[in-house]
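Please predict the structure of the following assembly.
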Amino acid sequence: MEPDVSIDTSSMIRIAVVPVGDIPLHIFRDYAGMLARHHHDIQLSAITSFYTEHQKSPFSQQPWDSGSLSFKFILGGSPPSPWEDFQSNRKIHGVIGICHCPSSPDLDTVVHQFAAACKGYSSSLVQRCFAFSPGDAQLADRNDRGNKLILFPPADQRTQEIHLQTMMQDIAASLLMEFEKWVLQAESGGTILKTPLDSQASLSSEEVIKAKKRRLGRAQKTIGDYCLLAGSPVDANAHYSTALELARLTGDYFWYAGALEGGVCALLMDKAVHKDPIIEEEVKYRYNSVIVHYRKSFTQDNAQRVSPLSFELEATLKLARFLCRPELAKEVVELLTAAADGAKSLIDASDRLILYIEIARLYGTLGYHRKAAFFSRQVAQLYLQQENSLAAISAMQVLALTTKAYRVQSRASIPKYSVFNDVGSSLVDGGKLHHHLVVSLFESQWSTLQMVVLKEILLSAVRAGDPLAAWSAAARLLRSYYPLITPSGQNGLASALYNSAERLPSGTHCADPALPFVRFHSLPLHPSQMDIIKRDPGREDWWAGSAPSGPFIYTPFSKGDSINNSKQELVWVVGEPVQVLVELANPCGFDLLVNSIYLSVHSGNFDAFPISVTLPPNSSKVISLSGIPTKVGPVNIPGCLVHCFGVITEHFFKDVDNLLLGAAQGLVISDPFRCCGSGKLKTTAVPNITVVPSLPLLVSHVVGGDGAIILYEGEIRELWISVANAGTVAVEQAHISLSGKNQDSVISVDYDALKSALPLKPGAEVTIPVTLKAWQLGLVDHDVIASKSTSVNVTRPLKDASSPMLLIHYAGPADNHEEVAESVSGRCLATPLKVCVLQGLSFVKARLLSMEIPAHVGEISLGNDCADSLVKIDPYRGSWGLRFLELELSNPTDVVFEVGVSVQLESDSEFDYPKTRIDRDYSARVLIPLEHFKLPVVDASFLAPSNGKTSEKKKKAEVNAYVRKLISKIKVRWVSGRNSSGELHIKDATQAALETSIMDVLLPDPLTFSFRLVPKGDGDGGGGGGVLAHDMTPMEVLVRNNTKDSISMDLSITCRDVAGENCIEGTTSSVLWSGALSGMKVDVPPLEEIKHSFCLYFLVPGEYTLLAAAVIDDPNEILRARAPSSSLDEPIFCRGPPYHVRVNGSVC
Amino acid sequence: MTSTACFMIVSRNDIPIYEAEVGTAPKKEEAAHQHQFILHAALDVVQDLAWTTSAMFLKSVDRFNDLVVSVYVTAVSHTRLMLLHDSRNDDGIKSFFQEVHELYIKILLNPLYLPGSRVTSSHFDTKVRGLARRYL
């Protein structure tokens, strides 16, 4: 069988092209290529000038104006075929030698060598030797060597081609003349035509007669063949018709079929209208008859030796090739199936090879790629049966052709642009692949077949000695089908990879990745120290518009514009190392040593640092790959470069993502990450990354350690935050702000410390003092503590969530960058003030206590100079009327607290009370005296009658304001240990305690009463306890009106003894008096004092109590409001506080 | 007498979702691979032929050597039941296909089965092999 047969093969003149002399193979191929490219067909009209008609041409109907001779160049020649007589087109009719003059200087030798080469082609009619690029000496060498050696002087390609064409026309004319000669000779009847089919052993007489009968028909058929070669279909037809008649008569079916076949060729040559359906039907009909007749010619007796089967198959293939169009697919498939059936009957293995190759090619032309791949694989198997490396190379190449149909092609064979298109499209739709796209990626994944094909490729590549192809096949096999391969098989593949790599030069790249599987895991969160913020050059406060910073890339607080661009954007800075987390998986049963893995960056502005990893069997690992951006611009990271199994491969993240998607759809065998025990990860796309020019980089730490500061509630502490510039650019602008929760716990930040340090040069450091006051743990926090107290760690969860953050927005010099519009950005340093608030002194309750301590008459009205005593007398009231705010505090902590109360006086000085110590696990009550708070006047406006809700509200607000003012004057400070101090938050509790009795606290009584001794002469009675019995003691009662209206009243004074008996009235009065003591009608003008003098004479020494009381006439509303009377008609009774009088016995 | 039969279900995406060697011939791995190669190649023919007829059962669509490929194209998302066989028992093959088709529909009705993924049910496998013994 012959390869590449078609119907018009019969009309092609075969010319062997052989190398002559020493000619490098590639040069020979170039020359032969030039020959074959342009000179398949030579027009008959073009050769007339070379043609001379010696005798009358047998080709009477030759179409000189439209016909042509067609050539088939056979490079390197071919051995003569035993079927030459049967099909003349199988003969080599001409020999062209190709000689490269510079490498074979002696032309005589060339001529000899060529002559020797031609000897092998006994059928050749024309021989020429083309010598290219002759030197001057060779051109000058005019020795006549006949017209067989033709020198092609060096010239440009086009000139040479024209020269070559002329020579070919000459050859064509010579051949035509030779054909004429041959035909004339044959017509005269001298040729014996034999085929291997004719039994050669012993010709019985019967057979000789039969052969003689047949000879004429065969001659006619052969003449027809020559007519075809000479390009004269009409002549050919005529001869074939005769041949058909004769062959039918003699029962020479084989030749009958041959003539029929030639007839079809002539028909097609003549008509040259292949697509005409009538012609097509005719061709089909005739060829079917050809096939039938070839089959008929099969004789049992020589079936062991030769068989016309190959002609039958060739005819089938010719027809299939003629019909090979998608519309006629069904017929072609039938023909090809029939042809394939014939394969097992073929005796010669190479015939079967050719048959399968042709079937595969035809299926390929038809668009039946799977069929083509199937037969290609059959071809490869036939090649592999021949145990030599050349056959193995062929097998490998044939198998490489099938990889597309079996979907196992090497990435190297996929055009580059499509890979990049793929990457691009995934970027466009944001990493989301549509379902059908995913499905299409895994279409036709027939794993059994794929594994077999890859194994065969591996086998053939190993045999052919192509380590790279072997590596690639083993890599594909291992990567895609590891779940279907036993651990020992996996080990075998791994060693195949290593063995192949040993034969490769180090640093070889392969397009097909092996293991491990690499997927993009995440980008480590930008350390908050390194946040980069777009700077609005137009604004002074460029940081203001930026999104609130923090550990989150997305915050719900950023509005509008930053939300709607869904694709993450990331900014890297030139010269600052960055990290990318990738996850590696080794699903195979052996230890995988990854010699080096690093990020593959195509944009060329990134230096990646390789690392080496070992992955145990069936394991996955998240590793961090780092690198440094080197130039400004976008960075594109499609995957990783991996040096594993001795070869460098590029692993794309997208492939693995697709694989995982496929696994999720049930289309792929298994998910390499899940089978390694790694959790399901949402596929994340690599964000768009831009590199910006270098920026300053501030690094902060809290002086004294970056750990959380443990503070008790309300504790005040000063911190020093040290900020250093670790970048290469000076900080020129900086701004400090606060964010996060509990911002108000930062009492002060020394902004000026930073401002004055600007510009902060690289390496420079500045310390910023910050004062913190620990906030109060809320209810929730307490709950958290309560619930956590059962678990191990109590305090930790609280620290991060609620700590405030110090934000320092800073930037380098603004005029540093030329492209102001774009990449001017600043940075934000977020320093969390890590505070861990512990429950400190806890506040149990607050209440208001009031008590009255009777005053001694002698001690009153001595002025306010005794302000340093703990308990002070009320100047307006006269007695030791005290109100205390009692705070009950408990100390649940394990340290000791000392609590001190200080009150801010009106003169802006503070008054401290002695400290109270509260031991651990104890409670204590702290009393805060509420004095100094009284208003001087009972104001009408203050107690204005409620006219409506608005005034009610207003009143309430006013009262509250007073309360707040009052409370803010009280500070409860505590000290614990050596360096903890703080303040209790008592506001709310106090407010609650005070709310009900605020009036009492704030407002003085409308009237105050006090008693005093009237100094006698030199004033010796002014001292305490200077009252003697049996002595007339002059006294005064002072009544002060604290309102703005004058009050008229009925004043009375009583005196009681220790037992509480009235000593003035009654039966056993022990006190005598002079002056009025009751029923005194007095008017007290507003805000003034009246004095009423009287004298008492104590009969018995002892303790007495003086009381003043008044019944107010015509009380106004204010008084009524203050008085605890219920009805309007009831007289308002005002009572002063009791005064003690110690009466000493007379000094005897 | 031994017979060869290789039954496969090929999903719409040309991915085999079920495969079984149901012949009585002794099992050889290489032969099984070859069977699958033949079935795979036959898909080219089936893909054209399926649109030219309304019948679901396409008998002997393709052959290689002595092995014949018969196909049953289901309406359910164009899943193809393919049988490679060397017997010529067309009626038996047709019944076999029809019964397997019913089994396959039952598999499809399983809400946990993802259409287009492999059929891993051992029950299905047992049933198919039983049908093969009965009809082929």
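Chain B has a mean pLDDT of 83. Residues 45 and 61 of chain B are 7 Å apart (CA to CA).
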